[in-house]
């Protein structure tokens, strides 16, 4: 640092950044060149990598459960459904499979329609009695171009459940 005087009797100091950096040791001069949020902070980088990993894990799990579907909407039965656009109709198939043997057949009422409302149909029948036996219920709705999902409500004696199914193209 050099002295600079402009008036007699007054001393002022002049700060020169280049002179100061030139007087620093080499290992300190290199750290001042780092730029960016993550370069000088290792724990922030590790935290960011952890967050990205967790987000990817949540996405994979949610896709897995969406593809697999929720089969626990009626107690004691595995329920699955599918909907496919065919011509001017949407063909819907609901499968119910008993997980264990039952004493008597349980009646079921199935309501199929669009989530936003509109045309709905009702199917009725009996849920399977024997474990491992599958019962299939089928119905069709008029195709609505703005709708992409079908809502299925199941009403049994003591339990009710609902699920939505994406309409697939033929």
CATH architecture of the largest domain: Sandwich
Largest sheet: 7 strands, mixed
Q: What's the CATH C level of the largest domain?
A: Mainly Beta
Number of domains: 2
Considering DSSP H and I runs of 4 or more, what fraction of the residues is helical? 10-25%
Number of helices: 3
Name the CATH superfamily assignment of the largest domain: C2 domain
Structure class? alpha+beta
Uncertain runs with pLDDT below 50, 5 residues or more? none
Task: Work out the radius of gyration.
Answer: 34 Å
Give a description of the structure:
By secondary structure, this protein is of the alpha+beta class. It has two domains: 10-68, no CATH class; 77-168, Sandwich (Immunoglobulin-like). The chain contains three helices and nine strands; from the N terminus they run E-E-H-H-H-E-E-E-E-E-E-E. The chain has helices at 17-23, 26-31, 42-68, and strands at residues 2-4, 12-14, 77-86, 89-98, 106-113, 120-127, 134-142, 149-155, 160-168. It has a seven-stranded mixed beta sheet with strand order 6-5-8-9-3-4-7, with no helix packed on it. Strands 1-2 form a two-stranded antiparallel ribbon. A hairpin with a 6-residue loop joins strand 5 (106-113) and strand 6 (120-127).
